[in-house]
Amino acid sequence: MSELCSLVLAQVQRSIADELARLPRGAGARTLLDVGCWDGVATERYAQAMGGATLLGAEVFEAQAKLAEGRGIQVAQLDLESGAFPWATGSADVVVCNQVLEHLKNIWLPLSEMHRVLRVGGHAIVSVPNLASLHNRALLLFGRQPTSIRTFGPHVRGYAFGEFRDLLARGGAFSIVRARGVGFHPIPAPFSEPLAALWPGAAHTTLVVARKEREGSPWQEWIRGELAGGVQTFYES
């Protein structure tokens, strides 16, 4: 990973912490679920931004999950594309999913599970690289592969800014509180921040804050409808 890319990802983590600090604080302790929590370092920072929280994490890699557990995080080690979360419906106040959904073919199960475990009125903060970022557009103009979905890279899905925002708003299960761009690769922060605010659709990363409005997953309904229509899909089982 290039130094500039690492700096952008650090900027995204700071932006998530800023959004967490802006969320309304109710009475009593709150619960934060970090989907793709890695070693738990960022999860702890998110909790600090919230003024403290009970911490849950989902992580596929065993070594990193153990490191997160050592930080006092209750971690479920699972494959997000095939495993359901072990937590009860409505048990989390906030769900964070940072730079995860671009790595998954089956996004419908984790989206449905994030929505399920979040209480009605709770918030999800989700980020992905922006396929329509200015630097990706420039690469395509010159016949090159976008960096957010390299042929030999770890990403298997690409999301443009508006498409990702609409995905989370699908079916009205979530309402969009805020959708913003973070970073303007290769321009370093803080110079990139005004550009990302002015033109979020061309920023490096899309960051969406969404509020759960009701129970029931629109993504599971979409899967059932597609399968009933006889469409061959990679997530059919």
Give a short overview.
The protein is α/β, with parallel strands linked by helices and 237 residues long.
What is the name of the CATH superfamily?
Answer: Vaccinia Virus protein VP39
Assembly level:
single chain
Q: What percentage of amino acids are in beta strands?
A: 15-25%
Q: Evaluate the radius of gyration.
A: 17 Å
Note down, in words, how this protein is organized.
- The chain is α/β, with parallel strands linked by helices and 237 residues long.
- The chain has a single domain, classed as Rossmann fold (3-Layer(aba) Sandwich).
- It is 35% helix and 22% strand.
- It has helices at 3-22, 41-50, 62-70, 108-117, 134-141, 161-169, 192-198, 218-228; strands at 31-35, 54-59, 74-77, 92-98, 118-129, 174-182, 205-212.
- Helix 1 (3-22) packs parallel to helix 2 (41-50) and helix 4 runs antiparallel to helix 8 (218-228).
- It starts with a helix and ends in a 9-residue tail after the last helix.
- The mean pLDDT is 90.
